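User: Can you model how calcium ion sits in this protein?
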Amino acid sequence: MFPVNKKTNGKIKVHRKVRLGFLVGGLMLMVISANAQNEPFNVILQRVNNDLQTFVKDKALAEEVTSHLKNLNADGSWQDVNYTDAQYDPLKRIKDMATVYIRTSNKFYNNAELHSAIVKSLRNWLDKNPKNKNWWYNDIFYPQAIGQTLILMRSAKEGLPSELEKALIKRMIRKLKTGDGANTSDEALHYLYRACLTQNKATLDSAAKYLFEPIAITDGKEGVQVDGSYYQHGKQQAIASYGRVFTGNSVNAAFYLRGTAYALPKDQLAILVNYLKNTFLKTIRGSFYDFNVRGRGISRKDSLSSGMGGMVGKIKLFNPGNAAYWDASTLRTSGKKPVDYGITASHNQYWKSGYTLHLRPAYTFSVQTASTRTLRTERGNNENILGKFLPDGATNIQRSGSEYANLMPVWEWDKIPGTTSRDYPDDNGATVLKEWGIPGTTKFVGGVSDGIYGVSCYDLNYDSVQAKKAWFFFDREVVCLGAGIKSSTKENITTTVNQAWLRGDVLSPKGAHANAKGERWAVHDSIGYIFPQGGNLEISSKAQTGNWYRINHFQRKTELKHNVFKIWLNHGINPQNASYQYIVVPGINAAGLKKYNRSMIQILKNTDELQAVKHTGLDMLQAVFYKAGTLAANGLSLQVDQPCTVYIKDLNGKNPTLYIADPAQENATISVLLKLPGLSKPKSIDCNLSAGAFAGATASFKIKE
Ligand code: CA
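Assistant: Here's the modeled complex, given as structure tokens:
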């Protein structure tokens, strides 16, 4: 029921009655204004109540509740719950009991025995007043779960004794920690529950304020950044870790408060919609997250399953203007439509977070890096114990979406896809030695983008390994270059191309069957890999063992064994100026790869000073200048007076476009001198770049004769 309609009806009624006389009209007005006061509270309670029941499966939940009832002690406690360290249980059990109790479709509907069990277990909770060592349970989960149970029971035929409800509402009261991003909105949610349960306008005012407080753009602080990425725990990319909590809470709040006087204001709605459309939903391929956006949550079971549930569907109700987009997202992420449904080509360079996201209908390819401006992927609370190399140029390559889902317990953690690192004899070498974020070590980290294509670079200097790494993004392929690879450690230095679920055959001819020029290639799971200069290529396709506990101490120790496809280049021990080049071609089989026109990709330079690739098919040039210098190759010359990343579109046309960015985010102006085949004379451009929060962003220049 929409409150707007109710209000309209009410007003019409009032007008009619008013004509009948002052007294009658006055009485009606009093009734209406009392209703209007109750209205947002009851409307919101009803929406929360419905929301809590959206995905309930009656039979399965009844079975769980049967077992909860059987194991419930006479005093309302459970034997198997440690009340000195209570986590989700027992409040989750009580909430489940309340859910089945109020559902007419459930066999426990209005069940007297269940009602007394709910009352008993709530009284027991009240008396025990459990507290967890982790503040999150005390200040967020407990009051939220209590509020949800009370809201559910409000719709019961026989509700809770009012003194019990009052005492529990009092127990929900916490001091709000404001300005804490996702956590603030998490806390404000139980304020909303309490406000509606008590019909308290002042509480609702502050709940609405703090629920929506995080929907703002900040620079450098926790929350949504100017480039559309998300920070939490310092300057650390948290797009679908804490950003997922932010998104879920913001969507729920906007959904609950829609159409009321507390509805999400337009300017904030625009921020939320933009975050969802241009960042968050792009990180989900099919129903699986890019592993680069889950933060330390990568070490949790099922953490790549997006479980978008009904979230996207809710957005439609407060943002009908984008309905077609939300519908497509719902169908795609729920698996009802193919993974490419509604996907259009895009390329995002998140210069605040060192994250690049390249989307095509056929694939998703992302890169995560770290710089002196950001923090490396955190280990925290003994989660993500082995993720030391996660921000060192990790590449997430997805076709179906599930390529890495739940593979993390058996991953070899010094062979994270895309990274160049020491190859330790065991995974202890990949242990993150310090909890929470560690700053990156270099500043030349970033890239240039026109929104569809782009190039990214990473100056790697970590764990006694140095390399200049770059990624050139086109339509059918991504070209990956590495140069200046140096290390004096005793291990082999390797660049891992991929490490994913083994699915089907691995095809990779070698020896006499390999290309005469020394070129190598491989195909696995509809992704092709081309190594134009060969290299010491190693491929493994066998079972790997491990368990979740070794990467996350909250997880199980059960030993797992999974078949893994792993492909890497070995640069050997003590490399002093090693390099690599490989081209990833997603959405191809062996026959397709044979026909694939490799000559369109011209790798013009791959040194520790300059990496450049020309794509003749797309008529574009992309380059990373680690130093001021000149790129001269077949008829073109590109000179820059500062280190930068450059991309030129319509290279041979009459009106090429130059895109340029400074990955170090230091220079205000970069001078470029261009000699192009389509231009009758050299062109000199002083490229003014943005400063402040937009330092690192791309500037573009249309080149005219
Ligand atoms: Ca190893």
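A couple of observations from the model: Residues 412, 414, 423-424 surround calcium ion (CB under 6 Å). The chain has two domains: 175-343, 363-702.
User: Helpful, thanks.
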